[in-house]
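Piriformospora indica-insensitive protein 2, pasting as requested.
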Amino acid sequence: MATSHLNLFLLFLLTTPSSVCQQINDDSSLLLPPSEQEAVYRVLNSVNSAIPWRTIFPDDLCASPPDGVVCDYYPDDATTTTSVHVTELHLGYVSDYTQNPPCSPNATLDPLLFASSFKRLRKLFFYKCFTGAPASLPETIPEDFGSDLEELVFIENPSLSGDIAVLSGNFTKLRRLVLTGNGFHGSIPNRISGLVSLQEITLSRNSLTGGFPATSRLKNLKVLDFSHNLLTGNVPETIGESTELLKLDLSYNAFSGEIPPGLGNLKKLEFLDLSYNRFGNHGVPLFLAEMRSLKEVYLSGNLLGGRIPEEIWKSLEGISGIGFSRMGLRGNIPASMGSSLKSLWYLALDNNNLEGRIPLEFGLLESAREINLENNNLTGEAPFSDGFRDRVGKKLKLSGNPHLVLVKESDPPPLAGPVISSSVSRALPSVCFPMVFMVLCVLIKQ
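Structure tokens follow.
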């Protein structure tokens, strides 16, 4: 958007008589307003006071801005004039190719950032900016702030604290709300449901408390991530009304009750992680079979109990990751998991009460890169060939099953009749293994 507007403006300058250009150059409306220029200086100084920003960038900050400060031109239809404003602020280290204004260990957050000075701000981005000295959000943010805001992103700022409610104001155009790895606290306010343009809400790795907020009005939502917080209570059935969801991650909270059947309405969902909550006593949800777009599903750490259902896996042939650890599962592992899930690369069924043999079909999981069946009551011979074990290596985890046997293909087949001890059989020449010579070999050894 900024580039296209600027290109049009430059074309306008090239095709305009010099007298008009001189008039435009003298027009102060094409300069960043002084209050906005001062606000940018103050924000830059608050994140890193060791850099002499006013000396390095003494002129108009939109004409020659530091990396991370983006401006745009706005025509005024009523007066036929053009004004310029800051539209994006990207602060903190992002990559070797984008050197945004760096933040010092003593970075603070100037409240002027949220004042009316930034009338046209569309993107506000802080990445690894507040990592040392304590910093905090302002207690209140003016209602007229952020009317054009589309992306609000605070990532990996552990020393930045404040009530999450401050950052869920009247941002009617907001598409991305990403606040992950910060020190935010408080409850997620229900008024977040009024931000109907939202496509992503990521509030992971904070210290948020309270219950699940209302989200039924967020029809455009594609990503919802509340993971690694302190949230409690039930997940409402209305979660199934956000039918555009591609990712839902509620892991590592304290949600309880039933996993809502309404999740079965999320036909486009590809990633589901409800692991390490307090959902319980309802078994593996059968409605998973209705979610045919699922690629990964993780329910570990919830005491759901019951058996692994046999009938749902044919509907989930494209699934690649399953995490069912520590769920209180019992009974046999269904063969349909091995025969249907040809794209499976990760499977965790460890620390349950599963019993019986591992289905032979599991030995045909050619895409598998990690299988964890530890600490169950599995028996019989494991169906994994030498080639399978070589490919998966240490990520094939079978320990903790006392009656499970892992036989190598290079080992001799078991003999009929009296059993020869392994120490004796290893000492015998290969010619002694045919049945015709078995008795002779034993006599020779004696």
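Note for the archive: The mean pLDDT is 85.
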